[in-house]
Amino acid sequence: MSMEKEKGSIDHISSADANEVEAFQHVDEGTHHRVLRKMDWHILPFISLLYLLSFLDRANIGNARIAGMAVDVGLDGLKYNVIAAVFFIPYALAEVPSNICLKLFRPSRWIPSIMVAWGLVMTLMCLCKTYESLIIARVFLGLTEAGLFPGITFYLSLWYRRQDVARRIAIFFSAATVAGAFGGLLAYGIEHMEGIGGLHGWQWIFCLEGILTVVVAIISYFYMHDYPETATFLSTSERQIVVQMLKDDKLGQATHFEYKYVWQAMLDYKTYVQIAIYMGLLVPVYAVALFTPTIVKELGYNAVYAQLLTIPPFVAGCICTLVVGYYSDKLNLRGPFVIGGATVSMIGYIILISQSRAGVSYFGAILCAVGVYPTIAVDLAWSGSMAGGDICKGVTLAMVIGIGNLGGVASSFIYIHGPRFFSGHGACIGFLSVSVIGSAFAMWDYNRLNKKHIAICERDGIDESQNEKYVDAGNSSPLFRFPL
Asked: Does residue 358 fall inside a structural domain?
């Protein structure tokens, strides 16, 4: 990518004149796809790397636990669970303010800055030698890392149309599954640094992964682009095509900041339906990330092989995330894919809770990851698509991700009594059931609202030429259509 940066704007979707609008209405679909592919190659690999590092840094506590941290620090009883849980409280509280800051400031400044902050926290965790110091470090890790996931999800919505965004979220979220696999492999290698520099192997896991995050964050200041109309990798005509595509997709809704759009998101009952769906999915996701090494070890494998055996579930989850994201966009459907994935994951947990044979149980663990990981990307695309206007969308996504991440607190306390972990697997089945029920309700409700909006448009003769009348209406605009 070009290292040249252009000054970003807060209202990033600039107005095209009448002649430009008319010209771009006749751009063929092949040109649209060519421009989208170009954007993909310049944006997705880089943000996927950022999220890989993010997920690696928050989940490596699970690898460190079985690498000797639990013994060296004396993590008996529920101490490990508390260390895992405290991350999510500041993480949840900071997400809405962070997304507002991303909109008010340049993404190429805000996202790298929070990366430097959490990378430093991660690096300094290698100095933690007590239970209390690990708790403090995890609190600050949650606070500094909070803005990345909702920020990148929001960032993608500023570059892609609603119908194009699910597969892009799937691509960058698949980095989480790669992080799970890579984390196990990396931990396996780093464990052999035991004693070097007076540090244990598990301390080196924190140190080296934190340093890597800081290095990538510094590079991000130069290589991250802000908005389509300031993207130096696009030609002038390509920038105009993207801007016009986004204007058409937004139906003329507001892109500037006003507090009324924040309240619009916070007072919408549909936001809380999406929060329930997301939390139901996220508890199993974090359970997979935080406890797969422990679960595999409890199946009878030693710690070294347990690190390596955590890799296949995450690889399978990565592949399925990409496939499901692609077909969700292709068919422009969200709910059925969430329900289907949650059901597959429930089957995996039923196998884990009912079987004692290691091989069968390990297959169940793979099904858990294969089912639940793809649903996250689809559900986030769904949550962003049901909000109208940039600020409303940013706040909605931050609320869904932020409050939903409080489910991580539950994930931290449900896996206590091995090797069968009845309470943990049972809780995951219950949370997945909430997502299935919530998704079914959302599909019914969105279909009802779409019919209502269509009827209003037909009755009053409303069409897209009247966009300006509904600039502040959000998803209450009769021109707005909810994806199912």
From this structure: yes
Cβ burial of 357 (10 Å; 0-12, 13-18, 19+) is: exposed
Alpha helices in 164-268 (DSSP H): 165-190, 201-223, 236-250, 259-266
The residue among 438, 247, 454 whose CA lies nearest residue 339 is: 438
> Does pTM top 0.85 for this prediction?
no
| C-alpha–C-alpha distance, residues 477 and 484, integer Å | 17
Q: Is residue 407 part of a domain?
A: yes
Cα distances (angstroms) measured from residue 159 to each of 36, 40, 66, 164, 167: 9, 10, 41, 10, 13
pLDDT in tens, 428-482: 999 999 999 999 999 999 999 999 988 988 888 887 777 667 666 667 778 788 8
Kindly state whether residue 436 falls inside one of the protein's structural domains. yes
Alpha carbon distance 315, 49 (integer Å): 16
Output the domain CATH number for residue 210. 1.20.1250.20
Exposed/middle/buried for residue 175 (C-beta within 10 Å: 0-12, 13-18, 19+):
buried
Q: In the chain, pLDDT over 90 holds for what percent of residues?
A: 24
Rg (Cα) of the chain, in Å, rounded?
23
171 is in which domain, residue-wise? 24-476
Q: Which helix or strand (DSSP H or E) is residue 67 part of?
A: none
Number of helical (H) and strand (E) elements in the chain, helices listed first: 21, 0
Spatial distance between the Cα atoms of 90 and 93, rounded to a whole number of angstroms = 5
Question: Phi-psi category of 8—alpha, beta or left, where left has phi over 0 and alpha has psi -120 to 50?
Answer: beta
Residue range 83-96, pLDDT digits in tens:
888 888 898 888 88
* Integer angstrom CA distances of residue 151 from 41, 100, 375, 399, 404: 19, 9, 19, 12, 15
The answer to the question of residue 11 being in a domain is no
Are the CB atoms for 278 and 400 separated by under 8 Å? yes
Domain count, the chain: 1
User: Distance (Å, rounded) from C-alpha 200 to C-alpha 101?
Assistant: 38
What's the sign of the alpha-carbon dihedral 375, 376, 377, 383? positive
Angle, CA 262 vertex, CA 13 and CA 283 arms, to 5°? 105
